[in-house]
Design brief:
Helix content: 40-55%
Order of helices and strands: EHEHHEHHHEHHEH
Number of strands: 5
Bound molecules: thymidine-5'-phosphate
Radius of gyration: 17 Å
Strand order of the largest sheet: 2-3-1-4-5
Shape: globular
Oligomer: single chain
Distance between the termini: 20 Å
Structural class: alpha/beta
Strand content: 5-15%
């Protein structure tokens, strides 16, 4: 199997500096002449993305299950592109992915209420439509506590940018992270760093340096085929 490019996802809460860090990393990769494609989810430019955009701006209402499926469909629209970019040697850097999809939906009380028996059922339901999407080789979760986020100023105007929601989203992200980084078949392979939590409450340059340390080992390429999420 010829080498292919790596798939790197940056996840994080609002005010974590995710967009800034993703764009710093993108510029750095480009300055090194590494072929890179920057993607962002939701991709608000597609027909599905436009429905999502209108929902996030509170210009339209949708059932919580329906919007969850639209976010996932928006990733599936781009899945073949992601795979072909990777196999043709272009690194894919992605601002948010399926983990945001699960964390934001599973944090909604209304969605949890659909599955009164256990919270885990809600998580499983949220995960189901994203099963088998191209799997990132590395997911970096930019973590920030609610107090640190508050110090950085108020949240924005969009639907989920509220303190209580962000707290619940953070809890789900941490749960997903534990699941992602737990040893496979009991073997704790230190190279298997698929999910890494980075403290994003620090100086911008310090965080950027840490991100580069995580990404640099992957830029030579990956020998395995593109994996599939949760398979
Ligand atoms: P953005 O601020 O990074 O553009 O993301 C828009 C919002 O959409 C953000 O609050 C996170 C949320 N979101 C979901 O609820 N589900 C998803 O699948 C994704 C990708 C984002």
């Amino acid at each position: 199997m010829p080498r292919r490019a790596p798939f790197i996802v940056i996840e994080g809460l609002d005010r974590s500096g995710k967009t800034t860090q993703t764009s710093l990393l993108h510029s750095h990769l480009e300055s090194l002449k590494i072929s890179t494609k920057l993607l962002k989810f939701p991709d608000r430019t597609t027909a599905i993305g436009k429905m999502i955009d209108s929902y996030l701006r509170s210009q339209s209402e949708l059932d919580d299950h329906a919007i969850h499926l639209l976010f996932s469909a928006n990733r599936w629209e781009l899945a073949p592109t992601i795979t072909s970019l990777l196999t043709s040697g272009t690194l894919v850097l992605c601002d948010r992915y399926a983990f945001s999809g699960i964390a934001f939906s599973a944090a909604k009380p209304s969605l949890r209420a659909t599955f009164p028996s256990t919270e885990n059922d809600a998580l499983l339901w949220c995960r189901a439509p994203d099963i088998s999407l191209p799997a990132p080789d590395l997911t970096i979760f930019l973590d920030i506590t609610p107090d640190q986020a508050k110090l950085r100023g108020g949240y924005g105007e969009e639907r989920y940018e509220k303190e209580e929601m962000q707290k619940r989203v953070r809890e789900v992200f941490h749960r997903l992270g534990e699941e992602m980084s737990s040893p496979v078949d009991g073997v704790n392979d230190s190279k298997d760093k698929r999910w890494v939590v980075v403290d994003a409450g620090r100086e911008r340059e310090v965080v950027a340096r840490e991100l580069w340390q995580l990404v640099e080992p992957l830029i030579e390429g990956v020998d395995e085929e593109v994996g599939r999420l949760w398979e």
